[in-house]
């Protein structure tokens, strides 16, 4: 009870100092809990949608997959005769045929794409009774003829559609127009898909290219018949192995699996950044309790002198940490719910709708938040608590500290040097690895070891680095600058821990900046070296025939190159098989891509019954120039093709591609199985590049789902995409940097309290308030720049090593983004100035006499 009372008294006596540490715990816990609530809410949204929309039993083509469109762009279908047979099966209450396609683009009268910008699909199909499970017609009526359509209310609101507006639907089989005669509202949350309905004959004809077929049959059970029994009855009627049969639960599970990987990527990535924030927060908490223990050394001595044991002193500090962790975690759990709602609103602005009605806070979420916050806080406070317990009563009463501090510092330095050396060796091994897959594991080990090594060795580095920064920066400030330098050097362990908190976030920023910049520079170099085409056309869907025809008839072009991909099974001369996609292109592709070969020429691969293979495949399967491969095309025949070229896989473009001519593919694959173009290339006539570029854009204007780019556009697009990804990562890392800033603020605030008497004496002998505030600001800047130098140096080392691995994948240019690095370094100085505002202000307000009288 005495320990608890003492801890409570100390906790509330230093509540201002504890507040910043509590904020660090709060932010870290909030990010974890916010991530869990956000992803759980997304799971709930999709689960409810999939559960509601699934009929008791569904019958689909045997090879159909819920999240995949066949390579020819037309959904797989089954005959209407199957619907008649299912209707007659035992236990069937009702059955109806459904038509649905996600390989469509819908545009309004202004040619604006109605699809989502977040990657959610555009779904076109027929209106059925099954749709009434999840939707209701809120305006107008369902489509009744070939020129009528109905859209979902969310899409209508986003794109300002109204009754009577005309929509054009672009499908693989052609495009057609219809006017809006109805608007349907979702009864459950729609995560962002755009949905368009037609009558059944129109959907069959325009989306499937034929009538009398469906993509799915929805079957509902009669009263008293279970889903499993109904499935058995339908299977018995149609025959096992003829189609794909699923109960409502199986159908919902398959749909969940389709989005599960995406959800896990978001979840674990965000939790990873939360872990970084926790790691940074540990340094803040260690510093806080180390300084609090140091300031209470005499108090601890008195406690020991009157009978308190070492364990009681230790427990007293740990109880304070427990209180700090509990308070911070409780607040963090509540803030986490707020963060989740904020993320939902942000996703809504981006096009993915998540309703707060589906907000899901599982019982495990607050438990996880509390356990993480409390455990991390207590563990971080353990070392200061242990040091407090080791101080002898007489030494404490003399403020002598721990006699083993010097020996512990030497041991720490030795451990840090060993870890750093081991990490450097691992980074060197990664940089010299022969395979990227092998080197990536070693790179991970090197990053972890060097990070821990720098953290441990921080106090040793502090002396030299702070002196270097001071020589460059502080000498101009005269005696005040020298005082700031001495203050930063007074306690190297404290300076090292404070700088290390900032170092972690900035190291990751520098590493990712180097990797991102190198990727852009490498890809740009590869484009300049390898791509001969003037224009590249691609989109988020394969290119429909009408867009292909528009491109081919565009004026000013010397040639147009088609580029298709089809799954196949390759059998090497020694009988080994491998599923591998093959690429079919026009012979002009050899001009559009100057692909290096180790044997043969790429143009030879476009000959009759010929193909090329990549060096990786050739090496693994023992294939040589002139060998014959057996190629079994998916949906087609089996061919014997001669290897006419072996292409070099040391490239970032088309790495591992196996080329053949489109004529060869057409010889062995039926016309209705030939896939549409993945991408198309074009070369302008000599001297007509600008005119051809403008004409090509005009020709493809009716198809907004495709982008026309010249090489300059393509490079800029690549740069923008990587830049957007890095900005998102930097935004997540900002949490760790905020926690690090709190650490600097806390360290300075506690340092000011620790030096109260000293500050009073300095003021008494003539130091002005302005000089005092400047001294504290300069000390803060030095600590921030110390952390920045370590972090940026470490991060650039990581990034350079990672680029060596990327070079094995064809990205061979190392590019250091010096403007970013310099900007981050200068920004760190501003961070230091900002962190010192409150401590400097408080120090300047001290009463000189009261400060001198402080014991």
Automatic annotation (TrEMBL):
GO MF annotation terms: transmembrane transporter activity
Topology of this chain in the membrane: Multi-pass membrane protein
Keywords: Cell membrane, Membrane, Transmembrane, Transmembrane helix
Domain of life: Bacteria
Spans through the membrane: 268-294, 317-343, 363-385, 410-431, 443-474, 495-515, 728-753, 778-798, 818-841
Keyword Membrane: yes
Chief subcellular location: membrane
Assigned GO CC terms: plasma membrane
The keyword Membrane belongs to this UniProt entry's keyword annotation: yes
Domain MacB-like periplasmic core: 19-235, 498-694
Domain ABC3 transporter permease C-terminal span(s) in chain numbering: 273-393, 732-847
Location(s), subcellular: Cell membrane
Record Pfam families: FtsX, MacB_PCD
InterPro entries: ABC3_permease_C, MacB_PCD, Macrolide_Exporter_MacB
Entry's family note: Belongs to the ABC-4 integral membrane protein family.
Record-given protein name: Membrane protein
């Amino acid at each position: 009870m005495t320990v608890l009372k003492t801890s409570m008294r100390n906790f509330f006596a230093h509540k201002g100092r504890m507040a910043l540490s509590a904020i660090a715990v709060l932010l870290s816990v909030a990010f974890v809990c916010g991530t869990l609530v956000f992803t759980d809410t997304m799971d709930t949204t999709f689960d409810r949608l999939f559960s509601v929309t699934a009929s008791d039993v569904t019958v689909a083509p045997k090879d159909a997959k819920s999240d995949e469109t066949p390579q020819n762009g037309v959904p797989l279908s089954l005959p209407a005769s199957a619907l008649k047979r299912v209707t007659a099966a035992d236990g069937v209450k009702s059955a109806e045929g459904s038509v649905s396609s996600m390989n469509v683009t819908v545009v309004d009268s202004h040619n604006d794409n109605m699809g989502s910008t977040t990657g959610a699909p555009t779904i076109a199909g027929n209106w059925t009774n099954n749709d009434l499970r999840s939707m209701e017609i809120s305006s107008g009526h369902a489509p009744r003829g070939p020129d009528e359509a109905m859209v979902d209310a969310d899409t209508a609101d986003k794109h300002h559609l109204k009754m009577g507006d005309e929509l054009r639907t672009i499908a693989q089989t052609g495009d057609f127009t219809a006017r809006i005669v109805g608007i349907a509202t979702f009864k459950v949350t729609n995560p962002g898909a755009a949905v368009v309905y037609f009558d059944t004959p129109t959907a069959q004809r325009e989306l499937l290219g034929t009538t009398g077929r469906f993509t799915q049959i929805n079957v509902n059970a009669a009263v008293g018949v279970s889903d499993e029994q109904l499935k058995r009855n339908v299977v018995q009627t149609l025959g096992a192995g003829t189609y794909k049969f699923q109960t409502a639960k199986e159908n919902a599970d398959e749909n969940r699996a389709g989005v599960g990987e995406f959800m896990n990527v978001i979840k674990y990535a965000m939790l990873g950044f939360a872990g970084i924030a926790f790691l940074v927060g540990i340094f803040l908490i260690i510093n806080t309790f180390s300084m609090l223990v140091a300031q209470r050394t005499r108090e601890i001595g008195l406690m020991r002198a009157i009978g308190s044991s070492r364990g009681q002193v230790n427990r007293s500090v740990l109880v304070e940490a427990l209180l700090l962790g509990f308070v911070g975690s409780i607040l963090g759990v509540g803030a986490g719910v707020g963060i989740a709602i904020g993320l939902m609103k942000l996703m809504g602005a981006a096009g993915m709708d998540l309703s707060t009605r589906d907000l899901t806070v599982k019982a495990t979420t607050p438990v996880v938040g509390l356990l993480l916050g409390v455990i991390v806080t207590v563990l971080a406070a353990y070392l200061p608590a242990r040091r407090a317990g080791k101080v002898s009563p007489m030494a404490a009463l003399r403020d002598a500290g721990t006699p083993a501090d010097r020996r512990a510092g030497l041991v720490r330095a030795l451990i840090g040097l060993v870890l750093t050396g081991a990490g450097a060796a691992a980074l060197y091994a990664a940089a010299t690895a022969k395979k990227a897959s092998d080197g990536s594991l070693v790179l991970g080990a090197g990053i972890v070891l060097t990070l821990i090594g720098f953290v441990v060795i921080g106090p040793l580095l502090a002396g030299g680095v702070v002196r270097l920064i001071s020589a460059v920066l502080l000498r101009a400030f005269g005696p005040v600058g020298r005082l700031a330098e001495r203050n930063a050097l007074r306690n190297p362990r404290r300076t090292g821990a404070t700088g290390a908190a900032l170092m972690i976030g900035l190291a990751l920023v520098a590493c990712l900046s180097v990797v991102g910049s190198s990727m852009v520079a490498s890809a740009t170099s590869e484009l300049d070296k390898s791509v001969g085409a003037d224009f590249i056309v691609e989109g988020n869907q394969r290119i429909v025939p009408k867009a292909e025809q528009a491109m081919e008839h565009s004026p000013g072009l010397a040639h147009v190159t088609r580029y298709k991909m089809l799954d196949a099974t390759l059998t090497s001369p020694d009988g080994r098989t491998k599923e591998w996609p093959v690429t079919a292109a026009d012979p002009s592709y050899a001009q559009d891509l100057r692909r290096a070969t180790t044997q043969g020429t790429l143009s030879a691969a476009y000959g009759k019954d010929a193909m090329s293979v990549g060096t990786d495949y050739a090496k693994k399967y023992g294939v040589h120039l002139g060998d014959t491969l057996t190629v079994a095309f998916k949906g087609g025949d089996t061919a014997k093709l001669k290897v006419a070229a072996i292409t070099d896989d040391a490239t970032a473009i088309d790495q591992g591609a196996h080329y053949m001519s489109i004529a060869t593919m057409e010889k062995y694959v039926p016309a209705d199985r030939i896939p549409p173009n993945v991408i198309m290339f074009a070369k302008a006539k000599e001297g007509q590049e600008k005119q051809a570029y403008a004409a090509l854009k005009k020709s493809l204007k009716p198809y907004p789902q495709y982008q026309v780019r010249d090489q300059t556009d393509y490079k800029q697009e690549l740069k923008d995409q990587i830049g957007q990804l890095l900005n998102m990562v930097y935004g997540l890392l900002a949490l760790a940097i905020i926690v690090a800033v709190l650490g600097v603020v806390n360290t300075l605030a506690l340092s000011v309290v620790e030096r109260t008497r000293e500050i009073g004496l300095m003021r008494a002998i003539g130091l002005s308030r302005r000089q005092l505030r400047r001294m504290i600001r300069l000390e803060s800047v030095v600590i921030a720049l110390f952390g920045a130098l370590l972090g940026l140096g470490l991060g650039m080392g990581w990034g350079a090593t990672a680029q060596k691995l990327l070079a094995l994948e064809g990205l061979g240019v190392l590019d250091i983004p010096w403007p970013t690095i310099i900007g981050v370094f200068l920004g760190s100085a501003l961070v230091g100035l900002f962190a010192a505002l409150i401590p400097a202000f408080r120090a300047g307000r001290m009463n000189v006499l009261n400060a001198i009288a402080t014991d």
